[in-house]
């Protein structure tokens, strides 16, 4: 009986990170799609350019 409670508790602890997720960042498929979503959500677009060497 004690083992079943322990296994249930272990399962619940293992599931916590999946339940505690915040917002996810998803890439837009095009600049137009990103711009339309930013206008709809009234948020800025942050674009960066990285160049190595």
Short description:
By secondary structure, this protein is an all-alpha fold. It contains 2 helices and no strands.
Q: What is the quaternary state of this protein?
A: single chain
Could you describe the largest sheet, including whether it forms a barrel?
none
Total DSSP helices: 2
Spell the H/E element sequence. Answer: HH
Strand content: under 5%
Query: Cα distance, first to last residue?
Result: 62 Å
Stretches with pLDDT under 50, minimum 5 residues: none
How much is the radius of gyration in Å? 21 Å
What structural class is derived from the secondary structure elements? mainly alpha
Gross morphology is: elongated
The average pLDDT score comes to 81
Helix share, percent? 40-55%
Q: What is the tally of beta strands?
A: 0
């Amino acid at each position: 009986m004690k083992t079943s409670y322990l296994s249930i508790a272990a399962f619940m602890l293992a599931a916590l990170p999946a339940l505690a997720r915040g917002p996810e960042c998803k890439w837009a498929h095009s600049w137009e799609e990103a711009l339309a979503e930013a206008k709809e959500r009234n948020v800025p677009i942050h674009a960066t350019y990285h160049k190595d060497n």
